[in-house]
Design goal:
The chain is an alpha/beta fold and 329 residues long. It has one domain (13-326): Alpha-Beta Barrel (TIM Barrel). The chain has helices at residues 43-55, 74-81, 103-113, 127-134, 139-153, 173-183, 209-217, 282-287, 292-304; strands at residues 13-17, 60-64, 93-98, 117-121, 159-164, 186-191, 222-225, 233-238, 244-248, 261-264, 269-271, 280-281. The chain has a twelve-stranded mixed beta sheet. Helix 6 links the parallel strand 5 (159-164) and strand 6 (186-191).
């Protein structure tokens, strides 16, 4: 059995948010206040969801948040996920997206438990700009240590995600190019999307793909790397073969037609798109005692209704029903 939506897209990527708590307050995500209630489920509940979805064809699982490394027990959870097997008897690829602040001490235990890859959110390589964006002083050194620990643990390729916002960090593009080459990591720039709590998004804040390429080419020429249709990033290597960058451009160059993802929020809701205006309460069915067969039936129905695309920037655009931190990055 496999997950396929009504547009014929194969769904094989799962993102599970295991908390919406975070120790950072990034300007493009959080309001900077502390008034929100937080949602988390027991790991056994996430594990049951993951087991059923792997049986339906999910081959990649990414743990997100919030900040997933805040959850005590994450190493054991990764170990449990690593015991799952697809219909072909293969272990799903397991990854985590983290702000990196706590990564240095836990990178090796995560690798030993079965984690395959790590992505670190890092929006500047200048400590002062980093503090301005995250609203956390002295965090840059922790994140850099985490990136290096992940590489030492063999969680390659280590990917760095940088959300670009005009007026904050668009001048960091070439600095990240140097960082990619010096630290042997893949830097991926992400166009700012309207998913922040403050709802301040405008098209003018977005630094689009073409501008990123132009800025980077002032540093060194780039060559595009062929990529799979379901990959979200357009990939480039520097002309001398040292270093790789990617650009995820959902605003200027949408890739919805090849989307392969579904998401589970930290409170157990199934979401078929970042920009869904509704979600589907998988955990409530579990709480009521639904069998695995009933959960499979529910999941198939939900995936069958997956949206064709988002409508960012179009007249009448309706923002997602949740902000990014409450969906899972």
């Amino acid at each position: 059995m496999s997950l396929t939506d009504k547009f014929g897209r194969s769904i094989h990527d799962l993102r599970i948010s295991i908390t919406d708590r975070c120790n950072y307050k990034c300007v493009y995500c959080r309001t900077g206040t502390n008034g929100a209630a937080f949602a988390e489920l027991p790991f056994d509940d996430y594990l049951r969801m993951a087991r059923i979805l792997v049986s339906l064809g999910i081959t990649k699982i990414r743990l997100t948040g919030g900040e997933p490394l805040l959850r005590k027990g994450i190493v054991q959870f990764v170990r449990d996920l690593a015991q799952l097997r697809t219909e072909e008897g293969l272990k799903p690829e397991i990854a985590v997206t983290t702000n990196g602040h706590l990564l240095a001490e836990i990178a090796q235990p995560l690798k030993d438990a079965g984690l395959d890859r790590v992505t670190v959110s890092m929006d500047a390589v200048d400590p002062e700009k980093f503090a301005r964006i995250t609203r956390v002083p002295h965090g840059y050194e922790n994140v850099l240590a985490g990136v290096r620990a992940a590489r030492q643990a063999g969680l390659d390729p280590v990917k760095i995600n940088c959300v670009l916002l005009r007026g904050f960090n668009e001048d960091q593009v070439t600095a990240f190019g140097k960082f990619a080459r010096e630290e042997n990591v893949v830097v991926r720039f992400i166009e700012f999307m309207p998913l922040e709590e403050d709802r301040v998004w405008t098209p003018e804040i977005v630094v689009p793909l073409d501008e990123i390429l132009a800025r980077m080419s002032e540093y060194l020429p780039l060559q595009e790397i062929p990529h799979q249709r379901s990959e979200t990033a357009r990939r480039y290597r520097f002309s001398d073969g040292i270093g790789e960058i990617g650009i995820i451009a959902p605003v200027s160059h949408p890739f919805c037609g090849h989307c392969s993802r579904i998401r589970i929020t930290s409170d157990g809701k199934l979401r078929t798109c970042l920009f869904s205006v509704w979600d589907h309460d998988l955990h409530e069915l579990m709480r009521r005692g639904a069998t695995d067969d009933k959960l499979v039936e529910f999941i198939l129905q939900v995936v069958g209704k997956k949206e064709e695309r988002h409508h960012i920037g179009e007249p009448g655009f309706v923002p997602a029903s949740r902000t990014m931190v409450h969906i899972g990055g």
